[in-house]
Specification:
about 25% strand, lactate racemase activity, 2-enoyl-CoA Hydratase, Chain A, domain 1, Ni_dep_LarA, 20 strands, Nickel-dependent lactate racemase, Rossmann fold, LarA-like, alpha/beta
């Protein structure tokens, strides 16, 4: 027997498993963190990929907007590196009053003042104006035409009207955009609702009951219609610079990439593949996955990423155990409403008529429940968990006991303690 633990909110859940039942433990490569974050930031700002140094791009007197991730991406630890971007700008003659920070909420809820302080850091918050993006108010958006995919392009006015735009964020696998970071700071980050809806609708094939486009998935860039649309829109806007962080499974910075929003980001994607893409030779009967604790398990909406990654590790109709505290519930008021539809086809028809991101997350949740027996350990009411098509459990011990009952006589188990990040490579998801 061996003891394991899985992150759950700000705590951990223990579990003892017989070693003979373990097929795989999917752990990212253990890479040492950067010793001096400030020095590394200054280095990549001065020696970027695909652009001149930032000092040759930004000029005194220009109005600069820095786009940062919201509270659901607190794991990026923007506050730890944003101060060095501000310092760099100050050193080349840019005054604080010419800099503003825009939180890329997409369709997420607004930030509280305390959350803004958490995101950017106490010192930056006290010096620089910080704003939330609002995708719902047309008067705050500029229309820039349509993409070749037919997406109407509405972007936050502060971004469009700025002299210079700097993107920040963190890179990780993303369940339908291929990877997070990069141009996602623009779409969905600071885009209008209509833009976000049309772009996300590209994850489905056209037509009725045609299902998901399999190319709109984790680790997919070229041929992924959603990602290609995002890139095209971002290129139309042409942000001036990007700085994205790459973090290890402990939340420590191991690298930064900077420069052209696409070229630098692609280098970061290669780092993520190497770090978090875990080759597997065999699929499991039972998969146990943690979203990785707070804030990655802040709500079920964010946990869908973990669920999707975990699908790649299990056999058809295998058992999937997910630990996710869901401190803020489902993550969107409308999430549960999508389960009024009796099947995936009904959900798909409704989404194609009126696409919403929470609706899509609900679809992916129902999708997992159709092809896996999914057991959820969370703070959600049992009635809600059952309505989602999942089996509720109060502990890992209870969940594993249920999983054994649902499986073959000698099930093999794969463990994914960092399920929001790690992607099994070599298996095909349903």
């Amino acid at each position: 027997m061996n003891n394991y633990s899985f992150k759950y909110g700000t705590t951990e859940l223990p579990l003892t498993i017989h070693d003979g039942d373990i097929l795989d433990m999917l752990i990212p490569k253990d890479i040492s963190p950067i010793g001096d974050i400030g020095q590394k930031c200054m280095e990549v700002l001065a020696h970027p990929i695909g652009t001149p140094p930032l000092k040759d791009i930004v000029h005194r007197g220009e109005k600069i907007v820095i786009i940062v991730s919201d509270i659901t991406r607190l794991w990026i630890r923007t506050d730890q590196f944003l101060i060095y971007i501000i310092q760099y700008l100050n050193d080349i003659g840019i005054h604080d009053e010419d800099i503003s920070i825009l939180i890329s909420l997409g369709t997420h809820r607004p930030s509280s003042e305390e959350e803004k302080r958490q995101i950017v850091g106490k010192e930056v918050f006290s010096r620089i104006s910080v704003y939330d993006h609002d995708c719902f108010h047309g008067q705050e958006l500029c229309f820039l035409g349509h993409s070749s995919f037919g997406t109407p392009i509405y972007i936050n006015k502060r971004v469009v009207e700025a002299d210079r735009v700097i993107l920040t964020g963190g890179i990780t696998f993303h369940l339908f955009a291929g990877f997070g970071g990069g141009a996602k700071s623009i779409v969905p980050g600071v885009a209008g609702l209509e833009t976000i809806q049309h772009n996300h609708r590209l994850t489905f094939y056209k037509g009725e009951s045609t299902g998901l486009n399999p190319n709109a998935c984790s680790n997919s860039i070229h041929g992924n219609p959603m990602r290609e649309d995002i890139t095209e829109i971002c290129r139309k806007l042409q942000p001036d610079f990007l700085l994205n962080a790459v973090l290890n499974q402990h939340g420590d910075f191991i690298n930064f990439v900077a420069g052209d929003f696409e070229q630098a980001w692609l280098k970061g994607c290669d780092m993520i593949r190497d770090l978090y893409g875990i080759p597997i030779n065999e699929k499991a009967d039972i998969v146990i996955a943690s979203a990785g604790g707070y804030p990655k398990d802040i709500n079920l909406y964010q946990t869908v990423k973990t669920i999707d990654n975990s699908l790649y590790a299990g056999k058809d109709n295998s058992v999937l155990i997910i630990t996710s505290e869901c401190k803020e519930g489902l993550g969107a008021e409308e999430f549960l409403q999508w389960f009024q539809y009796r099947d995936l086809e009904g959900m798909e028809r409704a989404l194609k008529q009126n696409f919403t991101v929470p609706g899509y997350a609900a679809y992916k949740t129902a999708y997992a429940a159709r092809f896996r027996k999914l057991i959820l350990i969370s703070s959600l009411p049992e009635s809600t968990v059952c309505r989602l098509g999942f089996i509720p459990a109060s502990s890992l011990e209870e969940a594993l006991a249920i999983a054994y009952q649902q499986s073959s006589s000698h099930p093999k188990i794969t463990l994914m303690p960092y399920g929001a990040n790690t992607l099994p490579i070599g298996a095909i998801s349903m």
